[in-house]
Queue: 2 jobs
Job 1
Amino acid sequence: MGYYEEELFAQKTPYLQWLKEQEKYSEKHTGKPLCRLPFRSCEDSVRDIAEASIHRGIGGIEDKAVYLFARKGGKLSENAEYEVREAFSQNKKAQLVYADEDYLGSLDELYGLEDDGALYRGEPWFKPDYSPDTLNAFFYIGSVFAVRGAVLREAVEKGLNLYGLVCRAADMDREKVVHIPKVLYTNNSLSGLRELEGCGLMENSVPVPDALVSIIIPSRDNSKVLGRCLNTLTRLTAYRNYEIIIVDNGSRSDEKAAVYALAGELRQKNNGLNIEYIWKEMAFNFSVMCNIGARMANGEYLLFLNDDTEIIEAGWLENMLSSAALPHAGAVGAKLYYPKKEKSDSYLIQHVGITNMGIGPAHKLSGLEDGGCLYHGHNLVTYDMLAVTGACMLVEKAKFDSVGGFDEELSVAYNDVELCFRLYKAGYYNMVRNDARLIHHESLSRGSDAGEKERERLSKEKQLLYNKHPDLEGEDPFYSPNLVQWRKDVEYNTSYLYLYDNEMLPVRLADDILRTLPKAHKNKLIRHMTGENRIMLTIDEIKTDDIETPHCCMERLACIAGWHLILGKDNACAEKALLLRKTDNCGHIYILPIYPQLREDVAEMIESGEASVRTMNTSLCGIRVIFNCMAIVEGSYEIGVVATVGNERRGYIKWSGCMIDI
């Protein structure tokens, strides 16, 4: 297998590369064996398992011993027992320890590659730390876990099944549960991958209290959008014990009059429904507006709701309230959809909770179709999350007040995340209810964050968030460190860094050395630069700020992304580099290496078009170059690519016409 084939396989199987990386640094450990207890299902009787596996019978259970449960139909890793022993040894209060797992399957099943008849590891399940509401939703603990003997003895005496044993061991106490973020078990097949074991066996919430909910809606100059929100709210919501508080930061007179008329109409239609309209001219500050509404609220619960949301079903508020009433509950969020596109039968997900990645707070599954079971039910059942969006957030007023409400220093972004951080630190669990579904016409109220000023403000507010919570920067107990951290990624993919993810150092060239290529062709002078019409070059993205990498530094970074290939050639043999040419004709030219990046979308386009004739091996045609701007003279630069193919003496060069300002 040549370099191209090896690299293509590597980029199509990131989890296999991640496993290799883990093996480089792992040491094999031995020690006193643990008592292993095999099981088939979370509904298995603990007494039956104990009697079958512990030869001395029930009376032989040692309270301080550790008992390791491993599902039949799979294999423990060599280090599983050592890792479990260490977890209990280092956490004296621990009663329950569990770990991650993966699955065996064919190359075709796991990675969509040609099957060679062998089985490979894939589909890693990187689990969250202790999540009581997720555990009530289904048995997310999975195939490998261990408990202390005292817990096992109690479960035997009480006649519990494994699900009950785990819940009893956890006992709603973070300090009693340890999650090992390592894969310690491999399932022999993919048969149970999409199943949510034990789903529906446990109660996921308490009965809905008959409590007043104060629905607080910030709004300005948006009466039509607000009208849709309120009309769907009052018409469709089954739970009726609520009041509405509209906080307006200075609508113009005609909009103000429209809101007054809307409120009057809704009062009349809904038997004197209490609707308060607070108008106060001030700069937009979401936190201030929500806090004003909270101070005016009469309810035991506060629902913060964007005016650009739309209610689509009856039971949403009831479902959220049943979770918010739990003693351990912090903020409860809803599943939010983007509006349906024309001729579409399904919704796209906008929000099912917020993860706190290395690059900052992010929405996982955003933009994906809400169908099937996405990453172990993240779109189906209640999940504990570090944060939920303030676009639809329910919290008990006493808890909201106890942590100080919204932080008014965060006027536009991350105020909801910051509130959730404080609730989590106070010992509460924030969660998303996937059975509470709304449409969110995102950013209709205040616009998007796409402009330069908006991006700058967003960056500053993110930095302020982490200045307030430095201990949570890049940390999320409900999002595994083994998942993607340093780039936008809406799915739950393994975090493996390829060469193109690293920062590059630009090298300045003299005018007449443009034809000298780096790497294997560093000393090879290309005598003819020809064939610009043979090159396809597209620059998809140019960024010169807010670039995040795993190797964070104080320097200013830039990122150029796109794709490049040579028509009619075997691109597996191509060596290429990125060129930056200063536009003031001063002769400044910089060169940076391009490492191959998988772009199957481009390969599919090329292979299905006329350009496919003699154009081969295009899957690794991607360009992603991150570099230090401090190494380049300030100015405006045109972006190009230079390449050679195999032993050809001619080189290929093309300038994209795209500019980057350094």
Job 2
Amino acid sequence: MIKKLSYYIGCLWCLMACTIENDIPYPLVEGAIVAIEVEGQRAGTDGQSVEATINAKERTVTLFVNDSVDISRLKIKRLEISDNATLTPDSAACVDVKNFPTIGFAALNELTSTANTRMDFSEPVTFTIHTYQDYEWTVKVTQIVNREIDVVNQIGDAVIDTYSRKVVIYVSTEQSLRNLQVNKMYLGGEFGRVEPDPTTITDYSAPVEFYVRTSWETTMSKWTVYVYQQASSTTTANAFAMVTKAYLNGKIQSGKTPVIEYKTQNSSTWNTLAAANVTTSGTSFSATLTGLKASTTYQYRVTVDGEAGEEKTFATAAAVPLENGSLDSWSKNESNSKLWQPWAEGAESFWDTGNRGATTVGDSNSIPTPETCNGSGNAAALESKWIVLKFAAGNIFTGTYKKTDGTNGVLGFGRPFTSFPSKLRVNYKYHCATVDKVGDDAMAHLKGKPDSCQIYIALTDWDEPLEIRTRPSERQLFDPNDKHVIAYGQVTHGVSIPNWTQRDIELEYRYTNRTPKYILIVASSSKYGDYFTGGTGSKLWLDNLELIYD
């Protein structure tokens, strides 16, 4: 009895000691910038989205603004951060640090009338997001000043020196310098001011002085414009070929009309591209050749004023089929009989699922089924389930399941791929359950609403497969607006589709001069499965996926 009493007293003392010292660690809650918007926001010149690019892993935000705003006094219109977090801005960058909000906001009208969100973004700015820990984020804003010049019979791009404030323009020898028509001369940017109006000045036989200011400057600066005649007018052209298309672009004398001709390398007859498919703007032209054959070498040339230019060649890419797109091939893992794998026994994997995570505490929720769209082979049955500890959406993706981190998955998204499909053809049906599991506070508004399935495809030029982490404290997911995404398409459904349905998911190409390195296809029975949110019993059947080239 004395021993037992001593034991209980010891346990009680330990509990009291823990209470007194308060040594229970704080939970790990990631502090993040969720969304940001500033005045004058625009897309970058390299095809970036208008939306800010947020890199959760690096804790960086990148965005672009036009030349209508003063980047040294840029107003933030929206700054959303993690739930229940607070923020501290870079005090040196704030125009009025005392009145800068310490909480996130979705719109300026949520703030008090004295709030001031203007900051100097001439250099990258830091924000510290506070939860139980502190997280430092860096926001970089790049201003694009659109100094565009277009004069009649111009040759090549104008040379613009912003340091010396001098501009050199070349025109053809047939163009009189005393009677030059200026279509456009944005020396102060698209939103700036130039005096006198360059379009009213016609004599450029001698250097012409203009007074210029950007939209945010209060004083005018003197600029000097020089126009020279150039003896030769060389037309240049480059081609970027896909599978059934090729994109041409080049330089031409302003005011001239390029005629594009092309043929297969072994043909003796040239085809002329319709003028409607050729676009000219100042000294630049672009064109799109369609209806080409895969894996074929073509010749092309640009004719101006009846004079044919240099003959060049390009080769179209191969129409590469999607590996195991039928989803017929499945196997059981040798060491785990509960683990279904979407590849044949002994074969190399191309697809994978989250089954390795699910089978740590339950059964596979992405499995083969003989219930197919055409009555033969197998299809994939992806079901959302509550598996002992948490919600798990049925899923399948091109890539590999790398490891399980606690009850969370670490995935490698993407498989090597270098072709250019135009569509992903899928056959699917869906049973939509009501969202009854919410694993993230940000998704609480979805509870009680219909679940959604999602299928998407992306072509990317990552240097390596994208690592996906679902652990909330270090969550890193696929971002469709990632600058490495060359083409993207998706379909999402929030209603049941009881019968097999065929659909083509169109790929929207954001870049027509970059070759993919990876293909990513993802299908999930619950769109927000990465946030452990969805409806128990939602089920997506998927069969006969095919890449279309047209």
